[in-house]
């Protein structure tokens, strides 16, 4: 199983792959998705697809909103119980 640090690094790399023009932007677990220039619903879909393809986890789009921290996305990937709890409150449950 991927470690939380490994998951964080893969997510950050995925964001740089989705947004190749982010040179110089520093991302870490506390970065909110909304801090990524041009973050919008299409970017959320692209990240959702990246997560599904790389981690085999389906995250509802409303969990990939502009206020979500990258660390929260990692938690949803690494902890199935956190994802189940979040899905209960999700419009996509």
Describe this structure in words.
By secondary structure, the protein is mostly helical. The chain has a single domain (4-88), classed as Non-ribosomal Peptide Synthetase Peptidyl Carrier Protein, Chain A (Orthogonal Bundle). The protein contains four helices and no strands. The chain has helices at 4-18, 41-55, 70-78, 80-88. The chain starts with a helix and ends in a 5-residue tail after the last helix. The model has no long low-confidence stretch (mean pLDDT 87).
Attribute tags:
single chain, 93 residues, mainly alpha, Non-ribosomal Peptide Synthetase Peptidyl Carrier Protein, Chain A, 4 helices, 0% strand
